[in-house]
């Protein structure tokens, strides 16, 4: 017998369907929304009870269709702690396992399909279907963003630069807050043999680097690399029989807001998806930031790290500059949070390299196992990883611990 | 603005004309009225006829009340700069840097959080300020008039 | 007025030590320095990173510069001729902004390969290095200007 711990633990409580037709003259999104609203109404749920969404497709950044980024906003669902795109029969399973695991309580699965231009001659003659197929084939959102000036902030770095300006404006901080993050990460990278960037930098180097999207500079940006990372997860019971001391997943949370795409419409600084993810983690974790030995905030741009520090609760919104200044170790060229928590010990995406934050997990596991020799952080037992923690979509917060 | 005689304004382009005028834009049945409006130099945003909520980005269902009665409606064009960055270099790493161009998320007065992304023109880029009041205007790009915003009050001095 | 020629090298995508590695070997830089050219680097890498690269190569450059600060190099060195060798339109832009002649490293590499494979990573028949930059710029031989 295989394990089946979810036996009788889950149920389907609502269903919704649209009409079927050869040419309904509607978007895929429109059909998805009709089915979704029907299912919620069939279940008799308040839509704000939905805290997980599985949209349609295989591309996590799918836009313009019926992916979860679009669906959550279009349905006006304020907060989700689990999101995924999927298709065929497997998306049902993803959704079920999300509920079973406690990542969300009530999940909405939405699948919508439209007739592609390759499926019939009349579909190929429809200018709407043709335009969609052409642009998706040519790279989808990139083309959309570039061709309509109002649509260029889709999965774009420019709004992060704009948020840097807004942050400096609203909280009266100086760019030293970003400089300290860049320097800290580079300092840690100098001892990481895997890091792409290992020559030390100074605050002055940061401030003198070239401006790309004002006020964002070269050293605010992570370093694109070729790399590979992998890890294996098994049950805690099995893990105790294996070679290494287990690193336990203590708690996890994803985060989604109703503005997951079209970043110009982003919510306020403390309302974006990143904050929802870290709030979701707090609600699930017995460990707090006071217990943290290691912190791995996302650093695709330095402003991401500022967001992670504040959303995790190390300080109030707008106070990171003071926190980093007071925690700055001028001799070591690093900062500590709360006097002891080390940050981005691998060098982060800024200096180790851009791996979607997956290198945060592997670094955290190695440090928590205690196998890192000269670069080992003494007695590291807890780590909070915020990998790929974009303001807008797919932030993941994971608390790891050892015995 | 360059090369756009008023006589060339199309008051109600057909679908085919909208597709032809905007060859690289993802036009679908939920946003085609917006682009038809642009060709007539009217900035149309979907609005819920049931509850009055402005629905942007363009979607067919009101996210507040789930009404399907969403009507493309012209906005006043008044707003303020909520987010702005000066783009020195496009994302393409081989793009030649140019004179910095502002890219601003302008919050329209119609509704908190209702923002339209466009350049700020008729203002030196280094004098664009957050929260600065602006008003809709139009700029030519590839022969099409696109929305832009210009200061509607006095411009502050350089930094 | 210094009668020498100043040659600024971009690093990434231009020199063999760049990331990505470029087609130009450091042999060429050493040759230029030996011939009396003022040489250095101009890159988006930090000054510390540039200096570290030269130190590893055992070359003492006359200058290192941030990519957007080439104009300061022009002011600091009163040479007769200023050349920036790079691989991108970004290089071309900042070279033009600082009034440097821009030489595309891929063009240069093709010519070098035909003259002396030691100076660039493409294989070709060996020949004299004397005329390397000749023809790259208004038909002049850079060697004659050195
Ligand atoms: Zn409504």
CATH secondary-structure class of the largest domain in chain A = Alpha Beta
How many helical stretches of chain A? 15
Could you tell me the radius of gyration of chain A in angstroms?
22 Å
Query: Which range best describes the helical content of chain C: under 10%, 10-25%, 25-40%, 40-55%, 55-70% or over 70%?
Result: 25-40%
**What is the CATH superfamily of the largest domain in chain A?**
Thiolase/Chalcone synthase
| Share of β-strand residues of chain C | 15-25%
Instruction: Return the string of H and E elements of chain A.
Output: HEHEHEHHHHHHEEHEHEHHEEEHHEE
Architecture of the largest domain in chain A in CATH? 3-Layer(aba) Sandwich
Strand content of chain A: 5-15%
**Major protein interface:** A-B, 52 and 45 residues
Q: So what's the overall shape of chain C?
A: globular
Brief account:
By secondary structure, chain A is an alpha/beta fold. Chain A is 35% helix and 12% strand.
Question: How would you explain this protein's 3D organization?
Answer:
The complex is a heterotrimer of chains A (403), B (159) and C (146). With 403 residues, chain A is of the alpha/beta class. Chain A folds into 2 domains: 10-113, Peroxisomal Thiolase, Chain A, domain 1; 154-216 and 251-403, 3-Layer(aba) Sandwich (Peroxisomal Thiolase, Chain A, domain 1), CATH 3.40.47. Chain A has 15 helices and 12 strands. Chain A has helices at 28-43, 68-75, 90-101, 121-124, 127-137, 141-147, 158-171, 176-189, 203-208, 236-239, 273-284, 302-312, 320-326, 348-351, 358-369, and strands at residues 52-56, 82-86, 107-109, 211-214, 216-217, 248-254, 294-296, 328-329, 334-337, 341-343, 382-387, 396-401. In chain A, α11 (273-284) packs parallel to α12. Chain A is globular. Chain B is mostly beta strands. Chain B has one domain (15-151). Helices cover 9% and strands 32% of the residues of chain B. Chain B contains 2 helices and 8 strands, in the order ααββββββββ. Chain B is globular and about 45 Å long. Residues 1-10 of chain B have low confidence and may be disordered. By secondary structure, chain C is of the alpha/beta class. Chain C has a single domain (2-140), classed as Rossmann fold. In chain C, β4 (81-86), α4 and β5 (101-104) form a beta-alpha-beta unit. The longest helix of chain C is centred in the middle third of the chain and has 11 residues, at 47-57. At the A-B interface, α1, α2, α5, α6 and α7 of A face α1, β4, β5 and β6 of B. Bound molecules: zinc ion (ZN). Residues 48, 50-51, 53, 62, 64-65, 67 of chain B line the site of zinc ion.
